[in-house]
Amino acid sequence: MKLLAMSRNDILLFVGFVIFTLAGPIILEPFGAGYPDLLQKFAIFGIFALGFNILFGLTGYLSFGHAAFLGAGSYTAVWTFKLFSMNPIPAIILSTLIGGIFAAAIGFISLRRTGIYFSILTLAFAQMSYNLAYSVLTPITNGETGLQLAQSDPRVLDVALGRDYGAVLPSSDFFGLEMTGYPGFYFCAIFLIICFFIKIRIFRSPFGLMLRAVKSNQNRLNYTGVNSRPYDLSAFIISGMYAGLAGGLLAVTDPLAGAERMQWTASGEVVLMTILGGAGTLIGPVIGAGAIKYFENIFSAFNDTILMNAFSFLPEVLQSAAVSVTSLFVGEGWHLTLGALFMLIVIFLPGGLMEGFKRISAMIKKRMNGGSDGSASSNPTTSA
Amino acid sequence: MSKFKINRRTLLKGSAALGVGLATPTIFSSKAWAAGYTNEPKGSTVTFGFNVPQTGAYADEGADELRAYELAVEHINGGGDGGMLNTFSSKELKGNGINGKKVVFVTGDTQTKSDAARASAKRMIEKDGAIMITGGSSSGVAIAVQGLCQDAGVIFMAGLTHSNDTTGKDKRANGFRHFFNTEMTGAALGPVLKNAFGADRTAYHLTADYTWGWSQEGSIKKYTEQIGWKTAAAVRTPLGAGDFSQYITPVLNSGADVLVLNHYGRDMVNSLTQAVQFGLRDKQVNGKDFAIVVPLYSRLMAQGAGENVKGIFGSTNWHWSLQDEGSKAFVKSFGQKYGFPPSQAAHTTYCQALLYADACQRAGTFMPSGVGAALEGFKFDGLGNGPTEYRAEDHQCFKDVLVVKGKENPTSKYDVLEVVEVTPRSQVEYPASLLGGELGPYNNGSA
């Protein structure tokens, strides 16, 4: 039972997380986000951000190249589909492994430097991978068009097991359960829960404590005779494996791998997700990932017609004025809204959305206690 | 710190929570699988999904596509002056929607990226209940979305996609294309180039590095080499590069006397402008005037490149200055609504929306297999391209191809291209087996 030894708070958090994840379709329905594709993206990018936070949140190493592992995982998964089997399990295992191997190679070199130099190195490696995938390795990656399945793929394992997909293009299935729609989401959600559990264990372990020591003062750690690099590298590899897994799941739910998954903007996105949600917190990155994907998919879809309906209660002059102002921030302007939100959060809530939740709950607690104690009001900010 | 121990009570609590969680998918799947085919319209409306680039290298084309779609929906629902519905040879659409249902639409941004395009198409199918997805500038995106629509069991009406692969190697039963392809461009452009520049030329290709660029480079090479040209080099440039100077400098020293720009959208505007700024057109190579060819032209691009397009040859699917009844009607109603003439992107997407609507009306259903059967082998006229056929073997439209040239003396800022030749359909037609690929069966989606 040692493996399950968790504090009461962690158990509560974990159980809450499991319930929230599994009931995601119901909870998110009122927000217009309760449809399978977006739910899958929530879960997958949640895993990606969780893994990123193991590196960034614990050791403080800011990697700008995590998209390389995501992309590598996707390509691996699609190639596994093409060569071996449409079953997602081999694809998931291989993409996680490849993510880890990639991370070991890049981390081995990049971790020789810290701070901004480390960030630049990882960025350079990721951009290199992107360019390789985009033009140099076209036979493997199919360049800009993206790697796709074909009817003529060998799929040796499927053939050996006598599985014939007929004249249609196969889609990945878990022993008959197709990995699209809600089954696809639950498949990803189970991995999200497993990943979250592993992360709690890492955060609470002596290994996690060592990583925190790296963040707070690496020099002091070195002077006391501890070689911190193996710890850094392990954290880097673990987060690379998370990214590889996320990339593999992307390919499982939608068997296509494109080079743009490796672009620096994709690497930047996971940094945004983590900071938006709260770096170094357990659940923050998942919330950040959800927020960004929600903006990307829902806000970008608002067009003038929808806005016109939304503001139809206003008189006509005001209506068109309101529409022309708000349309700057939705539709193709969703980046603008996200940017403004990000600025607000970084300025006023440096701990991300999680700090916001903590402040609100502290305020509620204060109200419940009667609020007579004046000294309590200054406490919540320092705890974050 | 209390340690976690499994006793009977926690086990009971845990399994209850898990049970609730596991039951949720069935609640939803029962609702989702109730229809006869994916997104069968039950109410008084039917939803189209318009998936166009609103950001990125093809944003101008995307904006024009969206305008055309809105116009098409207006006409199908009986609004406006009816546009090309009045000249269309099929008279099934009465201006009261399709099969008695009013058409509504949802939009999405493809960002000219396969991932984003698929995500937005999925949203329209899964959340908004779109019965048909149409649009896309960039063949990479079109092919990615076509594959998705095949899997999801909805019809995909391709927009501006010119690569052979869309209805060749990567064709799908649920996908249909009205636009022409690089094979047709090559076949039409070859003889015109021979007349204009002679048979003894050496070409240098700059190619957008994705499926369409490769396809066009291949076709132009094939047909120019047939007329006796040589190919000096073919250099791939990244999509949306912005600055092409590093690619243009080597052209002068390569011994080539023709530059073929396999670029589209803003890429073409930038590369052509820079090539002209570098003075390529004033040069003499091998005793001949240096020439530039842009195989796929559009008015939007010609307008963007301004003065630089004068005298430059290319091909186009349609041009607003055509004088047939269909084109005139379309230009009139588009101009009345938006104040300027439509581009070829607008034309092809408008036609696609109309053709889909008409096929549904004739089939009496929205089921993909039924609609597809109505489109296969469908012969029509009055949509601006003369007599046209949707070939059953590869779901590709066959029609005449326009070879155009940048106008020397434009009369307005829209009047930038002149039609050099209308290459008849028979000259650009090829057997479906030439490009490979397999349609496979229709997918009606989850019944």
Biggest β-sheet of chain B: count, sense, barrel?
7 strands, mixed
What is the correct CATH architecture of the largest domain in chain B?
A: 3-Layer(aba) Sandwich
Task: Tell me the CATH architecture of the largest domain in chain A.
Answer: Orthogonal Bundle
- Secondary structural class of chain A: mainly alpha
Net shape of chain A:
globular
Tell how many strands the DSSP assignment of chain B holds.
Answer: 17
- What is the helix tally of chain A? 18
**Termini Cα gap of chain A:** 32 Å
Q: Please identify the oligomeric state.
A: heterodimer
The averaged pLDDT of chain B comes out at: 87
**What is the CATH class name of the largest domain in chain B?**
Alpha Beta
What this model shows, in words?
The complex is a heterodimer of chains A (384) and B (447). Chain A has two domains: 24-297, ABC transporter involved in vitamin B12 uptake, BtuC; 303-370 and 378-384, no CATH class. The radius of gyration of chain A is 23 Å and the shape is globular. Chain A has 384 residues and is mostly helical. In chain A, a hairpin with a 2-residue loop joins strand 2 and strand 3 (177-178). The longest helix of chain A has 25 residues, at 229-253. Chain A contains 18 helices and four strands. Chain B folds into two domains: 45-180 and 321-399, Rossmann fold, CATH 3.40.50; 183-316, Rossmann fold, CATH 3.40.50.2300. In chain B, 38% of the residues lie in helices and 19% in strands. Chain B is built from 13 helices and 17 strands. In chain B, the strands form four sheets. A seven-stranded mixed sheet of chain B has the order 7-6-8-11-12-16-17, sandwiched between helices. The model of chain B is unreliable at 23-35 (pLDDT under 50). Classes of the chains: A mainly alpha (384), B alpha/beta (447). The interface between A and B is large, with 50 and 56 residues.
